[in-house]
């Protein structure tokens, strides 16, 4: 069970390949037996080998709220009725309204009133990161209290650079010390004097997705 605690509040999914071997194997097992993951944005979805919530469930947003073709499209409905586990990454970006809508959708697909129709749901993310653009925070969802939280207490990505880890923790909690502020300003100054070609030709501009880089 300890190996499964890779679904934390401060873990970034795009660094999956940098995980210790036992945790990488645990995550691979989850994907193998529980299916592919859903994520709120296209870049995140491609980086974890999943699909966005909207594309997988054929959800569209109108002035009156969320709608889906899942209840009228026979092929899609049959596909979703076979789902036994949902994994949602970057949960902080998902709105309370969307999470409740997904829960109600699966209840309607199975013609019952149970949250998510009783199937397994794993949500992953850091609630101190990006919130929904305009809607309520995900923890305001009616179904949020049904989740059992697991927290990663030890850094897995920056465990060899404790200074950088401390910096990130201060930034995510909006409690930036003078030393951290000076370090950020120094990095910014170094960035400004770099040749323009170095700024343009970086990994973000050359390849936007991990799988393309491979």
From TrEMBL:
Question: Can you give the residue ranges of the DNA helicase Pif1-like DEAD-box helicase domain?
Answer: 39-136
Instruction: Write down the EC number.
Output: 5.6.2.3
* Needed co-factor(s): Mg(2+)
Matching PANTHER family, A to Z? ATP-DEPENDENT DNA HELICASE
- Tell me what reaction this enzyme catalyses: ATP + H2O = ADP + phosphate + H(+)
Keyword terms, alphabetized: ATP-binding, DNA damage, DNA recombination, DNA repair, Helicase, Hydrolase, Nucleotide-binding
Q: Which GO terms describe its molecular function?
A: 5'-3' DNA helicase activity; ATP binding; hydrolase activity
Entry keyword annotation includes Mitochondrion: no
Q: Which Pfam families match?
A: PIF1
**What protein family does this chain belong to?**
Belongs to the helicase family.
Which protein, by its recorded name, is this?
A: ATP-dependent DNA helicase
Q: Which GO terms describe its biological process?
A: DNA recombination; DNA repair; telomere maintenance
Specify the enzyme's EC class, one word: isomerase
Q: Which domain of life is it from?
A: Eukaryota
- The UniProt record lists the keyword ATP-binding: yes
């Amino acid at each position: 069970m300890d190996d499964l605690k890779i679904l934390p509040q401060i873990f970034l999914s795009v660094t999956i390949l940098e995980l210790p071997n036992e945790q990488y194997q645990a995550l691979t097992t989850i994907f193998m037996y529980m299916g592919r993951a859903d994520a709120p944005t296209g870049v995140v979805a491609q980086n974890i080998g999943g699909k966005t919530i909207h594309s997988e469930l054929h959800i569209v947003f109108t002035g009156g709220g969320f709608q889906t073709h899942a209840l009228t499209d026979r092929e899609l409905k049959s596909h979703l009725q076979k789902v036994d586990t949902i994994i949602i990454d970057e949960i902080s970006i998902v709105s309370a309204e969307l999470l409740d809508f997904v829960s109600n959708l699966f209840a309607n697909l199975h013609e019952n009133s149970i949250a998510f129709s009783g199937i397994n749901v794993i949500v992953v993310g850091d609630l101190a990161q990006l919130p929904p653009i305009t809607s309520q925070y995900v923890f305001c969802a009616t179904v949020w209290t049904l989740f059992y939280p697991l927290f990663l207490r030890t850094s897995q990505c920056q465990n060899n650079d404790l200074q950088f880890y401390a910096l990130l923790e201060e930034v995510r909690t909006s409690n930036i010390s003078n030393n951290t502020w000076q370090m950020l300003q120094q990095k910014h100054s170094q960035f400004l004097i770099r040749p323009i070609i170095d700024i343009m030709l970086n990994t973000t501009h050359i390849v936007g997705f991990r799988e393309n880089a491979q």
